[in-house]
């Protein structure tokens, strides 16, 4: 049996295999006029080609729940009903090409208002089309603008925006919503003591720092149907506390295990186990740097877990599933290089995925 190509049923939703397209910003949405934040023909081609290439689930890139929550002015958004029709075209194109359409809903917090990577990245000044950023505390990501400390009203507004975006995602035809709680963006910046020094009910203890994440999950679940899955992407570690040369109090795998249990009590069906990006940090140079944490998280928390990070070899992906280290794999850069990675993997492993169609003609 090739576990990688077995379906996975979560609630009432069946994902045809365990090779999933990881959310990856393309920074290709129009940033001006009525089409701001809306998917265009580029997005249709980009995602539909990976769906036709055999992935079971394609999770559309970080999509802003509010305009100020975008990483860059070229991000997708779902903060307004006018954005629904363009997302409906994208979700339909993915579904018609053979994959389940999912979407990652995100707020970039103190890492918002950035230039596109191929133009150097880095913050865009307010007088050059950027916008003021906000976060749990007035602590900047090194080299970036200092965020305004969010008020309780700001926090409530962001939580409500997540629910509104999920409602729009449902109207657009997405089948899976992933809450972006990783990579130093807003929710992760609440979780980590390196970026959160609040003294109210959203700072201090682990329970307080996790509060906004659980509120977002509750808010999403309040509008998202019972039979459709919600995922939570987290950074399993900041890669700081375990570094002997550093060792500051930071977000750790042990914290992630506790959070994952809480998240599943609040309606998250699967934890997508990424890592890092809250602060610059030393990350181990090994291919399993991140998938090891996924395996530990799965074993210790009992939640369903997807592994991600430097997975390029189909045999490695299959082994992650066969060994029980993960329930699915998210593939990122390998899928940018090869839209048919999933179909090629099925062929290499001798599996016949349901979604290998015309592929047989090519061999
Ligand atoms: C161009 C690019 C854009 C990305 N955008 C996102 C994103 O929108 N949301 C997210 O959670 N991760 C994002 N990531 C991280 C990927 O989803 C993935 O976790 C990471 O690249 C590691 O997997 P890989 O080694 O298979 O590429 C991005 C990565 C790349 C290379």
Automatic annotation (TrEMBL):
Organism: Arthrobacter alpinus
PANTHER family, alphabetized: NADPH DEHYDROGENASE C23G7.10C-RELATED
Keyword Flavoprotein: yes
Cofactors named for this entry: FMN
Chain ranges of the NADH:flavin oxidoreductase/NADH oxidase N-terminal domain: 3-346
Source superkingdom: Bacteria
NADP listed as a keyword: yes
Gene3D superfamilies according to UniProt: Aldolase class I
Record key words, sorted: Flavoprotein, FMN, NADP, Oxidoreductase
Region forming the signal peptide: none
Pfam families found in the cross-reference section: Oxidored_FMN (PF00724)
Protein name according to UniProt: 2,4-dienoyl-CoA reductase
A GO molecular function held by the record: FMN binding
